[in-house]
Design goal:
Distance between the termini: 61 Å
Structural class: mainly alpha
Mean pLDDT: 96
Radius of gyration: 19 Å
Number of helices: 4
Strand content: under 5%
Shape: elongated
Largest sheet: none
Helix content: 55-70%
């Protein structure tokens, strides 16, 4: 039986069960959960970076967004609150829409 040892979406056990395959799971502690969400975010970011087309990139961005929702909740915030912080930062410092690439800044 292949060993995966990774955080999976909530319905994955149900999906596996419907195939008739045997499997085992366990519930993580809060500390383990946050660490595994961080691990999963690295995995999904790597998949996004390797996406070969827009459709695959959007799929991976959706996965990253799901992880951000879960991490926000772990840190006692709603996604709405995270979005409000993002908007305030965008108002103060701007976003990334203008594609500005900083080459250098003169030292004092």
């Amino acid at each position: 039986m292949p060993v995966h040892n990774k955080l999976v979406r909530d319905r994955i056990p149900e999906i596996i069960e419907n195939t008739g395959k045997r499997f085992s799971t366990r519930t993580l502690t809060n500390e383990e959960y946050i660490q595994e969400l961080k691990n999963k975010s690295r995995e999904e970011l790597e998949e996004y970076l390797n996406a070969g087309n827009d459709k695959d990139a959007i799929e991976e961005l959706a996965d990253l967004l799901e992880i951000i929702h879960a991490l926000a909740e772990c840190h006692g915030a709603s996604f709405k609150e995270v979005e409000e912080v993002r908007q305030k930062k965008a108002e103060k410092r701007g976003g990334f829409k203008e594609k500005i690439f900083l080459v250098e800044v003169e030292d004092e």
